């Protein structure tokens, strides 16, 4: 099978031998993107304790900027209609308590997750690893260190003393998790599979 997935950013050094990590999963393309949800499923299937906290809306190109929300969710709502207009600036999926959105840039989302959500979610256990992405599209080249929100979330986390790794997938289609075909050749599932090769 020709793979549409191309991981350009990093090596997932811990995953091959360690199960049951407390993983904070974030990104820049929003909490509702197909890639992050497929990767959430993969990491969870692999036995990790995964907390997803992603931006409420697309935050591509924001690098490591730290912009906190100043209002509740404004029109047109969360990405792909995932959050209603007027909803709180952060929130939790009502049926899956591991899924959160936050209406900030990727670095600010990581900060909120590290300081507010994770201590409750992980019962004050430390976060072992921050995983960011897989980004929709490639993050190749040194300039992306300042441009990529996917990478911005990771260097913010590293500055906070938490190991972090960013992933990027060659397919740049911006799409909702609700469009995932569920088939192994869905580009989001391929990206998730490359991110965590141990997953079923
Ligand atoms: C990228 O993903 C979209 C949506 O799944 C798909 O239709 C398209 O064929 C993919 N592109 C490549 C080059 O694989
Ligand atoms: C919330 O989680 C449920 C169960 O996993 C899922 O069916 C639903 O689409 C999710 N909605 C959002 C906006 O995340
Ligand atoms: C986590 O630590 C805070 C601050 O020390 C404490 O107030 C809180 O009760 C702790 N929560 C749990 C679940 O242990």
UniProtKB/TrEMBL annotation:
<dbReference type="GO" id="GO:0008252">
    <property type="term" value="F:nucleotidase activity"/>
</dbReference>
<dbReference type="Pfam" id="PF01975">
    <property type="entry name" value="SurE"/>
</dbReference>
<dbReference type="InterPro" id="IPR030048">
    <property type="entry name" value="SurE"/>
</dbReference>
<dbReference type="InterPro" id="IPR002828">
    <property type="entry name" value="SurE-like_Pase/nucleotidase"/>
</dbReference>
<feature type="domain" description="Survival protein SurE-like phosphatase/nucleotidase">
    <location>
        <begin position="23"/>
        <end position="178"/>
    </location>
</feature>
<comment type="similarity">
    <text>Belongs to the SurE nucleotidase family.</text>
</comment>
<dbReference type="InterPro" id="IPR036523">
    <property type="entry name" value="SurE-like_sf"/>
</dbReference>
<dbReference type="GO" id="GO:0046872">
    <property type="term" value="F:metal ion binding"/>
</dbReference>
<keyword id="KW-0479">Metal-binding</keyword>
<feature type="signal peptide">
    <location>
        <begin position="1"/>
        <end position="20"/>
    </location>
</feature>
<protein>
    <recommendedName>
        <fullName>Survival protein SurE-like phosphatase/nucleotidase domain-containing protein</fullName>
    </recommendedName>
</protein>
<keyword id="KW-0732">Signal</keyword>
<keyword id="KW-0378">Hydrolase</keyword>
<feature type="region of interest" description="Disordered">
    <location>
        <begin position="177"/>
        <end position="200"/>
    </location>
</feature>
